[in-house]
Amino acid sequence: MTDLYDTQRAMRRMRKQAMDRGVIAILDVGTSKIACLVLRFDGPGRFRESDGVGSLAGQSSFRVIGAATTRSRGVSFGEIDAMQETERAIRTAVQAAQKMAGVRVDHVIAAFAGARPRSYGLDGAIELADSVVSEADVARVLASCVVPDFGQGRQALHAHPVNFAIDHRSGLIDPRGQIGNRLAADMHLLTIETSVVQNLLYCIKRCDLELAGLASSAYVSGLSALVEDEQELGSACIDLGGGATTLSVFIKKHMIYADSVRLGGDHITRDISQGLQVSPQKAEWIKTRHGGVVATGMDDREMIPLGGETGDWEHDQRRVSRSELIGIMRPRVEEILEEVRTRLDAAGFDHLPSQKIVLTGGGSQILGLDELASRILGQQVRLGRPLRVQGLPQAATGPAFSAAVGLCLYSAHPQDEWWDFDIPADTYPARSLKRAMKWFRDNW
Q: Fewer CB atoms inside 10 Å of the end CB: C or N, the chain?
């Protein structure tokens, strides 16, 4: 745990140095596309030291001055499986964004969707030596949280304090300066597979870039697609990407659960390609132009030309009805949504005061998806787009860029995490088995 704590603190220092220089790049490494945005931080004092525990810690204003996307190569299920191909794709996106911005960037903050994320709920409590809670007390109570034995080959990516309690007063955002005798804390820990992260770190290093931060796509998509009330009252953000579908649950403006389903829009495209015997490129065009999941009486009469260049006239002139296309797409979409519902049930989503679900990501643009999702998930469902940020090109304002925009917000407005506090080396949390993700039923 010591190495992890030191590594995360080093990345935070590197991020602060890059922001002090005024320019940093964010990189969304997805299965279908790689997006790069270059951010410029404005004015003197553009970075302010943390002044609170939570979403307002370390605020700074920024503007997007460069943006580029390229087709992703060498990435499956949100994880790198062909290093050289991914390196070329990242170089292409970063160089194009740098050219548009007119500046060179050396530091990037990256987000990815794979690595099999797993959530844990931790809690800890201490007796206060002084009646007034200090910064050192917050560090001690976070260090007292018992970290579960999440096994070899995994490491922590996020460790957010989501709730503080002084004596019998719970629901505190920042306990510092308040008076009491006993301080308790709840913390959300998100772990991922180490090998996936190491591959991403190595690929970014091969591109002559320094990593100044790392985030889960599930987390940053929620930051950009959920409005403030939804983050406060309790909502789930489902990001339908190309190779994986991520989901995150927020309450009190904190993420308390994250997971991923290793199915996405590319699997729907593959089903169309195999079912209609067309190329993957043609299948993607058909899905985008004519796809849907809810059939109507008109769909039997709407014919879709499949085209082709095989030289066989009968084969190249084939046509299918839109209802046949929906018949291919709907089972896969239902499978994805059923898997999402299973994950939400395991997280205890039904126990939250508000149970709104927001769909985002490129796959969320399939016609009728919100209606089908409402039936399967049994909750209020809406389609979400990323929040507007200054300087963002019009082409990058769609649902497919929720993770990229969320990463901008994460880089400029980071929530305090466990490693943002000076914890003495002799009080690092010890690992032991503990039940996970049941705690927030009692606390919220």
A: N
Distance, in Å, from the CA atom of 328 to the CA atom of 322, rounded to the nearest integer, reads 10
- CATH code for 121-193+422-438? 3.30.1490
Q: Name which of 221, 226, 273, 275 is nearest 245 in CA terms.
A: 221
* Distances from the Cα of 319 to the Cα of 280, 284, 299, angstroms: 17, 16, 13
For the whole model, what pTM was predicted?
0.85
211: amino acid identity, one letter: L
Domains of the chain: which residue ranges?
A: 121-193+422-438
DSSP string, 76-102: ETTEES-HHHHHHHHHHHHHHHHHHHT
The Cα 330–Cα 57 span in angstroms is 43
Please write the tens of the pLDDT for every residue from 413-422: 877 777 777 7
Q: How confident is the model at residue 244 (pLDDT cuts 50, 70, 90)?
A: very high
Rounded distance, CA 209 to CA 289, Å? Answer: 38
Q: Provide the 10 A C-beta neighbour count for residue 314.
A: 7
**Whole-Å CA distances, 266 to 33, 226, 403:** 11, 25, 17
Question: Given CA atoms 106, 109, 115, 120 in this order, what sign does their dihedral have?
Answer: positive
Cα–Cα dist 215/200, whole Å: 12
d(CA 265, CA 254): 28
Of residues 151 and 85, which shows the higher confidence score?
85
Of 167, 173, 164, the closest CA to residue 142 belongs to 164
Instruction: Report yes or no: 341 and 377 within 8 Å, Cβ to Cβ.
Output: yes
Q: How far is CA 49 from CA 57, 60, 303, 347, 414, in A?
A: 8, 10, 60, 34, 11
Residue-wise pLDDT for 281-298, tens only, equals 999 999 999 989 998 888
Query: Which residue in the block uniquely carries the two structure tokens 């949390």?
Result: 429
Residue 311: phi and psi, rounded to 5, are 95, -15
- Check residue 252 and report its DSSP letter: T
pLDDT at 433: 30
339 phi, psi to nearest 5 deg:
-65, -40
Taking alpha carbons only, the member of 72, 121, 376, 84 closest to residue 206 is 84
Using DSSP, state whether 113 is helix, strand or coil. Answer: coil
DSSP 208: T
DSSP lists the bridge partners of residue 79 as 76
> Ramachandran region of residue 26, left (φ > 0), alpha (ψ -120 to 50) or beta?
beta
Identify the pLDDT of residue 16: 78
Residue type, 163: N
Contact 409, 58 (CB under 8 A): no
In this structure, the strands spanning 210-216 and 107-112 are parallel
